[in-house]
């Protein structure tokens, strides 16, 4: 499913491997903690976010030991 037609590489969810859309809620996990954001709200995440990026929905579904959102 790799589509590398873009000049800038959009961030991908580390759980499902799909591109995270500009307006999709995302979860950024890095050493400072867990942040809920979106690329629209935080354009810096598009170009070189530190840590890991996930779709918010994927993150909530993941059996994380550091779950942000209770299900
Ligand atoms: Zn995902």
Can you describe this structure?
The protein has 71 residues and is an alpha+beta fold. It has one domain. Helix content is 15%, strand content 23%. The chain contains 2 helices and 3 strands; from the N terminus they run ββαβα. The protein has helices at 44-48, 56-61; strands spanning 25-30, 33-38, 52-55. It has a 3-stranded antiparallel β-sheet. A hairpin with a 2-residue loop joins strand 1 and strand 2 (33-38). The radius of gyration is 12 Å and the shape is globular. The protein starts with 24 loop residues before the first strand and ends in a 10-residue tail after the last helix. The mean pLDDT is 79. It binds zinc ion. Zinc ion (ZN) binds next to strand 3.
